[in-house]
Every structure is written in structure tokens, then in C-alpha cells.
Amino acid sequence: MTQIRKDFLIERYSIISEARSKRPHHFEFTCEEKAGQVCFFCPGNESLTPPTIDQYPARGPWEIRVFRNKFPALKPPRGDHEIIVETNKHGQDLGDLTPEGILGAFKMYEKRRKALERKYKYVAIFKNVGKQGGASLPHSHTQVLASNFLPPLSDIEAKAAKHYYDKWHRCPWCDYIEKTVKGRIAFETRKTIAITANAPRFSYETWVMPKRHVGNFSDLTQEEALDFCMMLKKVLAKLEKGLGCVPYNYVLHHAKSGEKFVHFHVEIMPRVATHAGYELGEGAYIVDVSPENAAKFYKSKG
């Protein structure tokens, strides 16, 4: 059956048409790198990028490194664009790190977000993986893009969340977690939940959320933060194991200063399809795997 699904909070619609998964496909994803390329992000090649802004550990060889994007989308005073390289090992994706390694990356995300929020209106944190996911370099990294304007989707989401909070005196995501049917729960612990999106933009789209209401990752306790990172690793590992070399994006959704109605979460979007005329022209989405079957995929063994 074809279904029309609406996002639980904003006016975004998806058409779920699983019959379309039977279409013939003559294109494949590729993870192959060009031979003989020098990696700008590997240790020893720091001179090929802008100077280090921050690193972990603070002294000695780095495991996580931050620097300005050499080809920035925005420059001061209109904005700033940084790169966070989460690992010094080429070929290691974020999902290959230990939960503690992922935790270190998220702590750096928060450190840079707080620093940039002192200067700019909004700080977007997102990760592109694979050529089809928009990455230009294969070494695992995350981008931090600060701007003097609030991106439209974040603005729409924040306004809808505030309207919900003003009406019901509750966070919409907290209610969403409580009301989500078990058929869309990919993974769950006492502290964290991974839910397949009700109105996905891509098949297998999944949101990882702490169960306790927090606006930002740094509001979590150490135990909650580590549990969140373990859950994120589990989702990414299943994508790689089940779908192979799949490109993906993830985006952090976080509260700005003073916002008590936004619930921190990460939205993971596997790029298993290409948005075409309908999606780009109309802003609605056609998806060939239902959220319920996506949840079964995550739960399945093998």
C-alpha cells in the first residue's frame, strides 16, 4: 500500500511506496578512493590545511583536530566554517570508533559550538560521508558552519516546538518519544532511543535521542552521554553491515541559548536514493522503505 506520512512537528510530508523498491537500478555506490592522492587530514599533513584551532589531547600527537575550512562557505564577519577531524586514522569512520572515541568527538562539537555561538546567530553541525553524501574528502570529518542567520528549517522547527510548548507546556520530542509505536523503535535503552522517522526523507532515516529532556549534548550526564554514543555507534554499524558502503549525512539538532523547548537529537539520513524532480521541486519525499520495515532492518541479526 502507498501511504502518506506527515512529520510529527512540522509541515513535511513523505509518500511511502515500497513497490518502487522493485525498480531496476543501473547505478551503484562506490567507496573507492582515487589512487595516489595525498590526504590533507592525516597526521603529518597539517601544513596542507589552515592552522589548528583546537585539538585533543591539547598537547602532543592529536587524536581529534579542528581547523578552519580551507574552502569556507562563509567567512568572518558573516560566519565561520570549521572542520573537526574525529580520528587520526585514515579509513576509520566515526562508527568504527569506540563509544569513548565518539564521545570525544561530541565533546569537541560542543566546545566549538559554544565558542562560535558567542559570535554568530546559529551554529550548524553536520557530517557528510561518501561522495553521494556530499563529502569531498574520504578521511572522516564533521563540519561546523556558523552563520549570522537562522537556517529556514531550524527556524521552522524551533517555532513549531515553541508553539507546542506554549500550548501543552511540554517538549514535543518528549511526547513523541512517549507516543512512538514500538514498530518504529530501532534500538532502545533506559537513557537513549533510536526511532525511524515517521515521515522520512530517505529510507532508513533514524533519529537518536536522549530520553531525558536536554537542549544540548553537554547537558547530558557522563553516563547519558556515553550511552548516547553507544547508540549512535550501533545505528551506524548496522547501516554499514546491512547496506554496505552506504553514504550518509547526519545533522545535530540543538537548542540555542535560552530555548527550553528544543530537544537535542541527531538525525541520520542514509543516502540510499537520490532526490529528484519531485523532492527538489515540491519539498515532499518519495521513500521506498516504510519506517516500520526500516525498524525491523535495524533490529534484525546479520
Could you characterize the architecture of this molecule?
The structure is a single chain. With 302 residues, the chain is an alpha+beta fold. It has a single domain, classed as 2-Layer Sandwich (HIT family, subunit A), CATH 3.30.428. It contains 6 helices and 13 strands. Strands 3-4-5-7-6-11-12-10-9-8 form a 10-stranded antiparallel sheet. Strands 1-2-13 form a 3-stranded mixed sheet. Strand 3 and strand 4 form a beta hairpin. It starts with a strand and ends with a helix. The relative contact order is 0.16.
Instruction: Give the strand line-up of the largest sheet.
Output: 3-4-5-7-6-11-12-10-9-8
Largest sheet: 10 strands, antiparallel
CATH architectural type:
2-Layer Sandwich
Q: What is the CATH class designation?
A: Alpha Beta
Q: What is the C-alpha radius of gyration, as a whole number of Å?
A: 19 Å
Secondary-structure element order, N to C: EEEEEHEEHHEEEHEEHEH
How many distinct domains?
1
Fraction in beta strands: 15-25%
Write down the oligomeric state. Answer: single chain
How many beta-strand segments?
13
Q: Which regions have little confidence, pLDDT < 50, spanning 5+ residues?
A: none
- The CATH topology assignment is HIT family, subunit A
How does the helix and strand content classify structurally? alpha+beta
Principal-axis shape equals globular
User: Percent helix among the residues?
Assistant: 25-40%
Mean pLDDT: 94
The number of helical elements comes to: 6
Distance between the termini: 27 Å
Corresponding CATH superfamily: HIT-like
